[in-house]
Design a protein that fits this description.
This protein is of the alpha+beta class. The chain has 4 helices and 6 strands.
Length: 134
């Protein structure tokens, strides 16, 4: 895979967070951008509160936005960034579950070292995923 094939997702997330980030604001510190199977890019910010345990992650909101237009959503790739200046972060465990639920072969951008990144299948980040018995 071309390492830079999905760089536009990183740039989309960076652009969003840099246009909306406010250090003294309402805890908006993460942006996510995903490429869906319909070819569209969706991006969103997290919704923070003063009680961090009830905040909603940017990845989940982005998936919700994509589902609004794409009932049969499959995620091709997703990238997340944090703060200003924006830097790449790896999705939390809860978000990895959401991503895998909508595409077990989705590519997820993860940081590698201090200044590099790669896109890896979500299955590598979430081995032995929870599966509902039918």
């Amino acid at each position: 895979m071309d390492k830079h094939k999905y760089d536009f997702l990183i740039e989309e997330a960076k652009k969003l967070i840099q246009s909306r980030y406010c250090k003294e604001g309402h805890h908006t510190v993460v942006a996510a951008a995903l490429l869906a199977n319909n070819g569209k890019v969706y991006s969103a910010l997290n919704v923070g509160t003063y009680q961090p345990s009830i905040s909603t992650c940017a990845e989940i909101i982005t998936i919700g936005m994509a589902l609004k237009e794409n009932r049969d959503l499959k995620i091709e790739a997703i990238a997340c960034v944090r703060d200003d200046p924006a830097y790449i972060i790896s999705p939390c465990g809860k978000c990895r579950e959401y991503i895998a639920d909508y595409s077990d072969d989705a590519l997820v951008c993860v940081p590698v070292g201090a200044a590099d990144y790669e896109f890896v299948p979500v299955s590598e980040l979430l081995p032995n995923k929870y599966v509902k018995k039918v």
